Amino acid sequence: MTDDLVLRRQVCFALYAASRALTDVYRPILDEIGLTYPQYLVLLVLWERPDDAPTVSELGAELRLDSGTLSPLLKRLEGAGLVVRRRSARDERRVEVGLTEQGRALRERVCDVPLRIAQATGLGFDELVALRDTLTRVTDTIHRQKEQ
Amino acid sequence: MTDDLVLRRQVCFALYAASRALTDVYRPILDEIGLTYPQYLVLLVLWERPDDAPTVSELGAELRLDSGTLSPLLKRLEGAGLVVRRRSARDERRVEVGLTEQGRALRERVCDVPLRIAQATGLGFDELVALRDTLTRVTDTIHRQKEQ
DNA sequence: CCCCGATAAGTTGTGCACAACTTAATTGTG
DNA sequence: CACAATTAAGTTGTGCACAACTTATCGGGG
């Protein structure tokens, strides 16, 4: 029982270490185009629906990040000329985040990134899908518990 | 091809989200004893070998964290009275990190934590072990590539 | 013995994450 | 309509992560 506190036995550490390791793979790739990994994630959401201009809250719901994280991040993306933020006309509380032409164009420069990342993991396609699905299940389980 | 850039399909996002979700489960538990998750990880290493007093570098090798992260973290742990830092007598460059009596005693208060975390994931024991091993394999693969 | 490269820890600066709080706009209820 | 409760975004403060740099010590070759 006392052995349960050994670092290498803990799933949480494996998760924490793997997450940082994968981010390390992203870093040099994203550095070239001047993005951080969380900024890249925001753009992924925007690229999925290029004409949608989701609000900060909607972005946060997708990425599970709050305005405390997103507000300064979006300000930096706007400073880089990749997105625009505008107050909603119908609801002045909301801020809609849209892609600029430059932000839209950036998509072409990263379309081979997922493949390069997948290769770095050393896992086969089926293993990757299984891993992703297990992780998604864990995340959903935790969030469902939190809401109750 | 173009679909590869969809957020929910990316293993990396699943990893990033799961890691933060699990940390969310830790937070209220560790809050009670005044620790952050990375601080808890440092203590895990120290508890594994209570009479060892590893150096900052050795801690960093276990956790894959550099002195830029560990130095201030250890200073806070020392401020909380859980560890002591002392220059090695044989090599004045090294700083050895040892547990205080209070730090040693804290172990008793967290020995049920791994079980509580495991339950929060909703996975069975075998699934957890398989997940951990897959993640460890990914991490090792990435680090091995980095060294070459 | 001296110096030069290597090593160890710490410092500085940037960018997340997240809690707690503030400000402003909106909605529901009487 | 009035106004209290809610919601949205932003701000502030703390603590990681990590790159780049500094300071101090160590070790080996000339």
Record field, number of beta strands of chain A: 2
SSE succession of chain A? HHHHEEHHHH
- Strand order within the widest sheet of chain A? 1-2
Mean pLDDT across residues of chain A: 95
Query: Which oligomerization state do the chains in this entry correspond to?
Result: homodimer
Overall geometric form of chain A: globular
Largest interface: A-B, 60 and 60 residues
Q: Describe the largest sheet of chain A.
A: 2 strands, antiparallel
Radius of gyration of chain A: 18 Å
Helix content of chain A: 55-70%
The parts of chain A where pLDDT drops under 50 for at least 5 residues are none
Distance between the termini of chain A: 30 Å
Total helical segments of chain A = 8
Structural class of chain A: mainly alpha
Strand content of chain A: 5-15%
Question: How does this structure look, described?
Answer:
- The structure is a homodimer of 148-residue chains.
- Chain A is mostly helical and 148 residues long.
- In chain A, 64% of the residues lie in helices and 7% in strands.
- Chain A contains 8 helices and 2 strands, in the order ααααββαααα.
- Chain A has a two-stranded antiparallel ribbon with strand order 1-2.
- In chain A, a hairpin with a 7-residue loop joins β1 and β2.
- In chain A, α1 (11-31) crosses α7 (113-121).
- Chains A and B meet through α1, α2, α7 and α8 of A and α1, α2, α6 and α7 of B.
- Chain A binds a DNA duplex (30 and 30 nucleotides) through residues 20, 23-24, 27, 36-39, 55-57, 65-73, 75-76, 91-95.
